[in-house]
Amino acid sequence: MSLDTQRPATGKMISVKGEGMVTTRPDLATVVIGVSTEQKDVAAGQQQNARDSSRVVNALLGLGIPAGNIRTFDYRIESMYDFKEGMQIFRGYKITHLLQVKITDLEKAGTVIDTAVRNGANYVSDIQFTASKQEAYYKEALTLAVQNAYEKAITIGMALGVKLNAVPVSVIEGTDFPRPITEYHTPMVKGISTTQIQPGKLTIEATVISQYRFDS
Predict the structure, then answer these.
(1) What are the tens digits of pLDDT across the range 147-166?
(2) Which residue, 90, 107, 130, sits at the end of a domain?
């Protein structure tokens, strides 16, 4: 976002960086859950992986997770090798199917993970918490950033003994969109019981660069 004038920002100027921050509790979560299968025969491995993945999906649907909240995040087939006495020996194939699951009831986050693992999932990673109204929180943080920039400019102007024009010549919004900062990682889970997930809080940040004219 930019508040711009019709002429370049020249002359006596004060340029400041404004920062705003809003803290809130998340109400949405996404988690990557997967099934990894190792087989000598690739077709047999694919079939086994498909069965195990279907069992995981059906278990999640049984928890009340809508089908639209479960999607394939990644699917890959990899060759596996052992190395013995400097020789590469083919061991088989590794088939991995990763699902991204959106959870709208955070109290169920631990139950979702436990249920998936009990039904064949052997990979759980990248739990990310977000807020459904994150854009509104960002706008609030952006407002605070603009106010912070103005307060800094006033302080600098007073220190210099000059009169500041209260209307900025330009305001440039920071380019980084807010991302969730709370994550929980459990790679290659083999078995979990009563997993406790603590969402914590989200911090939404915004920055601006503001320029103000001043008179001596």
Answers:
(1) 999 999 999 999 999 999 98
(2) 130
